[in-house]
């Protein structure tokens, strides 16, 4: 009698032999495996072309601005082809800092004084080798505002500096207080609602280069700050135009989206820890010890804002701060050309909170919405190392505003 163990060994041996020989022959030599792979590839390609690669939606409050964009920024009318192997929003958001190259940029740092006695760190890229604008006194300047905890060394900022270098423009990066390691001279950091530091920076740039055209581009929270500034100032600004990327238009909706389990794990907790690190400075420990201790225990951005940001900037409640920080309430007052780029799948700024109807009511506004792109993602190409859809929007719009800006006068 043959034992069960012997039968099992024989069966295992025969099955292994079959897998190594018969299955290989049947699947590949006969073309079955190739056919399956070809069929899957064809199905994926069809899905990608029909459901993923689409033209962005361009919304504007006036025909004149819309036509200007179509004439001078062809990217707004082109199909956006996200990188085919990572078009999902969270993957785009997470991968961009790692897959995109960081162009070499040498900055000139400048610390300027704020009205309250604090200091603001500016990183200048003077572009003295510019052949198109060799005279520094009238060389166009682009002011760049990084995201929530970002600095002049973020890949998306470096790419915009690189695009500006190619255009012959000068760049200056506005680093929020405390994020670059500079000493906090006063017990104050930054928030999306407060634009006093931004006003100080713009006035400083204007005094230094009075004859040079100036525009600004803000990313994420930097874009929120820029939109709030433009809404407050109306026509009383020297900026010729603005660009806003991946802004959170309604802070209530943004924080609610980021508190969903997966997004809280992937993004919220990390950003909260970065915020806590940015305020961990000696002057804050001396003057705001109890508040800082409470903020250090926050688990989400909302908790951090409740325990620190809203208190520091004097808001009665966190809801009051979030209402004031939401740019959606000030867009109607913007009086210079402002182009905004958002992805419909951005978990930081959910599509239902994108202010489409508000944009339609202001001829100075235009909103460009892609189906995919995530938060500051917008990757494209087989291996997206050097340029993104966002970079192309930036370069074309910056050039159009600086060199064709006269066509944007009196958009109303």
From TrEMBL:
Q: Organism's domain of life?
A: Eukaryota
Naming one, the record's GO cellular component terms include: membrane
Question: Where is it mainly found?
Answer: membrane
Has the keyword Hydrolase been applied to this entry?
yes
Give the UniProt subcellular location, in the record's own words.
Answer: Membrane
* GO MF entries: acetylesterase activity; monoacylglycerol lipase activity; phospholipase A1 activity; phospholipase A2 activity
Per its record, the protein catalyses:
1-tetradecanoyl-2-(5Z,8Z,11Z,14Z-eicosatetraenoyl)-sn-glycero-3-phosphocholine + H2O = 2-(5Z,8Z,11Z,14Z)-eicosatetraenoyl-sn-glycero-3-phosphocholine + tetradecanoate + H(+); 1-octadecanoyl-2-hexanoyl-sn-glycero-3-phosphocholine + H2O = hexanoate + 1-octadecanoyl-sn-glycero-3-phosphocholine + H(+); 1-hexadecanoyl-2-(9-oxononanoyl)-sn-glycero-3-phosphocholine + H2O = 9-oxononanoate + 1-hexadecanoyl-sn-glycero-3-phosphocholine + H(+); 1-octadecanoyl-2-pentanoyl-sn-glycero-3-phosphocholine + H2O = pentanoate + 1-octadecanoyl-sn-glycero-3-phosphocholine + H(+)
- Could you tell me which InterPro entries the record lists for this protein? AB_hydrolase_1, AB_hydrolase_4_CS, AB_hydrolase_4_sf, AB_hydrolase_fold, ABHD4
Q: Which UniProt keywords apply?
A: Hydrolase, Lipid metabolism, Membrane, Phospholipid metabolism, Serine esterase, Signal-anchor, Transmembrane, Transmembrane helix
The EC number on file is 3.1.1.32, 3.1.1.4
The keyword Nucleotide-binding appears for this protein? no
Return the broad EC class: hydrolase
Alphabetically, which GO biological process terms does the record hold?
medium-chain fatty acid biosynthetic process; medium-chain fatty acid catabolic process; phosphatidylcholine metabolic process
Which SUPFAM superfamilies does the entry link to? alpha/beta-Hydrolases
Q: What does this protein do?
A: Phospholipase that may play a role in phospholipids remodeling. May selectively cleave myristate (C14)-containing phosphatidylcholines through its predominant phospholipase 1 activity, cleaving preferentially acyl groups in sn1 position. In parallel, may have a minor phospholipase 2 activity acting on acyl groups in position sn2. In addition to (C14)-containing phosphatidylcholines, may also act on other medium-chain-containing and oxidatively truncated phospholipids.
Which family is this sequence assigned to? Belongs to the AB hydrolase superfamily. AB hydrolase 4 family.
Q: What is this protein called?
A: Phospholipase ABHD3
**Taxonomic path:** Eukaryota, Metazoa, Chordata, Craniata, Vertebrata
């Amino acid at each position: 009698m043959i034992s069960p163990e012997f039968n099992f060994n024989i069966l295992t041996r025969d099955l292994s032999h079959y897998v190594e020989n018969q299955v290989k022959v049947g699947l590949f030599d006969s073309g079955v495996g190739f056919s399956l792979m070809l069929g899957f590839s064809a199905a994926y390609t069809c899905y990608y072309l029909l459901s993923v690669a689409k033209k962005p939606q361009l919304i504007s409050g006036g025909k004149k601005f819309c036509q200007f964009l179509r004439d001078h920024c062809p990217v707004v009318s082109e199909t956006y082809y996200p990188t085919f192997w990572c078009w999902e929003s969270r993957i785009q958001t997470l991968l961009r800092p790692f897959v995109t190259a960081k162009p070499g940029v040498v900055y000139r740092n400048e610390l300027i004084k704020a009205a309250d006695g604090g200091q603001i760190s500016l990183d200048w890229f003077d572009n003295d080798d510019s052949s198109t604008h060799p005279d520094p006194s009238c060389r166009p300047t682009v002011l760049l505002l990084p995201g929530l905890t970002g600095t002049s060394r973020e890949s998306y900022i470096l790419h915009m500096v690189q695009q500006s270098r190619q255009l012959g423009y000068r760049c200056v990066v506005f680093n929020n207080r405390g994020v670059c390691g500079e000493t906090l001279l006063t017990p104050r950091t930054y928030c999306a609602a407060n634009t006093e530091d931004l006003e100080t920076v713009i006035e400083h740039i204007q005094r230094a280069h009075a004859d040079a055209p100036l525009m600004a581009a803000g990313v994420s929270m930097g874009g929120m700050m820029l939109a709030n500034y433009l809404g407050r100032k109306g026509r009383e600004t020297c900026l010729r135009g603005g660009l806003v990327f991946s802004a959170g238009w309604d802070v209530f909706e943004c924080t609610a989206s980021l508190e969903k389990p997966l997004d809280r794990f992937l993004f919220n907790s990390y950003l909260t820890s970065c915020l806590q690190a940015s305020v961990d400075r000696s002057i804050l420990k001396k003057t705001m010890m109890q508040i800082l201790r409470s903020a250090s225990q926050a688990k989400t951005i909302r908790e951090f804002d409740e325990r620190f940001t809203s208190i520091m900037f004097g808001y009665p409640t966190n809801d009051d701060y979030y209402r004031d920080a939401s740019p959606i309430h000030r867009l109607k007052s913007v009086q210079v050309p402002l182009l905004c780029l958002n992805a419909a799948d951005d978990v930081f700024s959910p599509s239902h909170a994108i202010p489409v109807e508000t944009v339609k009511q202001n001829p100075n506004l235009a909103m460009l919405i892609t189906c995919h792109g995530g938060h500051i993602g917008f990757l494209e190409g087989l291996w997206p190392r050097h340029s993104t859809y966002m970079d192309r929007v930036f370069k074309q719009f910056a050039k159009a505003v600086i060199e064709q800006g006269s066509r944007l006068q009196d958009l109303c």
